[in-house]
Each structure stands twice: as structure tokens, then as C-alpha cells.
Amino acid sequence: MLALTTIVLASLLSNGPAQEVATFRVQPPPRRESSVHVRIPYTFGTHDLVGRDVSGQVSAIRQTLQVLGGRISFPIDALDAGNRTLECHTREALGLDYGKSKFPGEHVCQDNRLPPSGNDAVAFPNITFDCVGSRQLERDPRAPNDGSARLELTGRWTIHGVTRDDKLVLTVTPLAAQGAAPAAIRVKGRITIHLASYGIRVKPALVIHAGDDATVDLDLLLAEAK
Questions:
Q1: Most buried residue among 1, 66, 172, 187 by CB atoms closer than 10 A?
Q2: Does 98 map to a domain?
Q3: Of 196, 211, 121, whose CA–CA distance to 164 is shortest?
Q4: Strand, helix or coil at 195?
Q5: Is 62 inside a domain boundary?
Q6: pTM here?
Q7: What CA–CA distances, in Å, run from 9 to 4, 27, 218?
Q8: By C-alpha distance, which of 163, 162, 183, 166 is closest to 174?
């Protein structure tokens, strides 16, 4: 009996106070405080595209900000490069089913638009990351003491119809307080996507070729769901 009591007490002490789980949601338009910035190098520089129509939610432990799970998604149609031709060519590479489309053998954009239906219509409209868990990483001692947590998220990207496991290193920072719980969190991080891993082909133009990797910067504002 004494041994059993000792085990129970040790378990309670090790677990500490009960941890509360909160749900945080990306703020929908017209608020555009979340962004996905995609950079794709090419022969003469870098193509920069920004998407602000980000959606999704995550569950996190209030006390530690550790992410337990969730989904973040953004449509390729919302990627803005300030260049309609580049935007359409990006949707070709990311959104078309090469097994059906004439692309990448030839461009299928007409007036910088893809057909709304048929074999050359977008088959894969969204890029999604599904998180299944996270672990806390050691905090950089040089970083400001703002209550942030540095996390390694485990999950799966779905890009161009291909789903692959991946791990993301992100910083989660509380922005406002309601008692002891954050009312909102800011999530930031940089990820490298190897395009060939998702079967993505960028059609070259004469001597101009795209690089093999895209750099993705996430800057997300998520508010606690009521």
C-alpha cells in the first residue's frame, strides 16, 4: 500500500498543475495580418509571391504554447507577385495535374488565366500543413524575453496533390493576455520546400530557369476561439 501511494504521489508531482488546451484560429479576411511569403530563385534573381488569405486553426497548451495539432492552409490563387503572368505560371506549376494537362509541355494560361474547367483547370487549389504534434526546443538566450516558445512541429505538407511528412521549426509568441492565458499568438518561421519532392516542375523560358527550392516565410496571427 505504501509503495502504491508513493507511486501515485510521484505521478501527481511530475505532472504538475492541470494544463489547459485552447484553440487558436487564423483571423479571416478582411483582416490580413497573416501572410505566407514564397521566394523562388531563378537565373536572374528571385521571384517573390505573397499570400494573405490564410486559414486554419491549431490547438495549443495555454501555459507552454506547445502546439498539439491543427491545420493551416492557403490557396495558390491568392499568391500575389505584382505580375499577372508570373502569378498564372505559378498556378500552372503548383495547381495543374500534369497527367491530364498540356502543361508543362506548353503553357496553358490564356490572358493570364487558367481555364475554369477541363484538363487544364486547377486540380490542386490549396497548400496545406497538418500538424500532429510538437516538441519544445531550447530557447536562444539572445532572444528577447517575450514569453515566446521555440517549437519543432511534426506534420504533413500537401502540395500539388502530394503529401509528405515534414518538421517545421517555428517561434510562437503570446501577444495579449486574458488573466494567465494569451488571447492571441503570433507564429513565425522559415521553411525550405524542395519542389521536385512534390513533383513540381517550373517551365523554363529560353535561358531562364527556376531554382530547385522555394523558401517559405510564415507570419501568422491566430486569436483564441471563444
A1: 172
A2: no
A3: 196
A4: helix
A5: yes
A6: 0.84
A7: 9, 43, 43
A8: 183
Q: What is the CATH number of the domain that holds 185?
A: 2.40.128.110
Cell 530547385, residue?
212
What distance in Å separates the CA atoms of residue 89 and residue 204, rounded to the nearest whole number?
11
- The answer to whether residue 90 sits within a structural domain is no
Domain that holds residue 31: 20-81+125-224
Q: Alpha-carbon distance 96 to 103, whole Å?
A: 8
| Model confidence band, residue 12 (pLDDT cutoffs 50, 70, 90) | very low
Residue partners of 22: CB distance under 8 A and separation at least 6: 59, 60, 61, 62, 181, 182, 224, 225
Given a cut of 50, whether residue 8 has pLDDT beyond it is no
- Report residue 125 as a C-alpha cell: 487549389
The residue written with cell numbers 485552447 in the block is: 22
61 grid coordinates: 497548451
